[in-house]
Amino acid sequence: VNTSPKFDIGRNFCNKLWNASRFAMMNLEGVDPNAFDPARMDVTDQWILSRLAATISEVTGQLEEFKFSEPLAVLYRFFWNDLCDWYLEWAKSRMRDPAQKPIAQNVLAFTLDCALRLLHPFVPFITEGIYQKLNEIAPVRGLKGIADAEKATAVVIAQWPEAIERMAHPKVEEEIRLVQDVIRSIRDIRSKYNKPPGESLKASANAPQAVADVLNAYSGLVCQLAALSEFRAAADQPKPNNAATAIVEDVQI
Are 79 and 14 in contact (CB under 8 A)? Predict the structure, then answer.
């Protein structure tokens, strides 16, 4: 008998963990650790590794203070939101690009490996099952020249992830946060006006020049996840006639 809605939350997360990991591993076939070049990482790679570094530090510190619900909440947000909702979605197109695929594959394998180790104390059986499969598909996981993931035959005896503060990029995290806020706002507009994801739209933004520069630099990320054919930002960007609008901080979309 399900006696609490919290069981639904746990069940849904375990389903997400299992299905997302299976999807990730489908894209890890043939991963070559020697093909990884840190100089060729894009901003989404830097962002997810920065989020991973913060998660490792936060979860480790909380467990050392004998806290248990707090670190699980942190891991829930990292795996479901950062890794699944954002990084995996951005990585899909890169998996079809022979030049970018090895970079995205190695970053994904390393991140998934660390996530399984962090989650293992809370969901031991599912993480062990996924880890065993990951060992078959990508037996060597690590980011050459940046970080290693010491191999283990089972996650229950695997080394706890080491702190990787050198991967922290607060500036990148702040820039991607802005990009995510813009994407969410465009999605809200789509929902409000019943515009399906398959219908390509054009969008623009009026923003302070420094913010506009960031949005233009990452316009491809906005277009990809907001299903746009075009996106541009400028400090003097006029509002088109009959355009739906949204406000994100000091940005008018």
Answer: no
Residues 6+ apart with CB under 8 A from 113: 131, 134, 141, 149
Give the phi and the psi of residue 79 in degrees, each rounded to 5.
Answer: -70, -50
Q: Quick one: pLDDT band at residue 220, thresholds 50, 70, 90? A: very high
Q: Summarize pLDDT for 184-197 with one digit per residue, the tens.
A: 999 999 999 999 98
Percent of the chain that is helix, strand, coil (3-state, to 5): 60, 10, 30
Rounded Cα distance between 52 and 69, Å, is: 19
Name the β-bridge partners of 211: none
**Helices 124-137/5-26 angle, 10° precision:** 0
Nearest to 53 by CA among 165, 207, 180, 206: 165
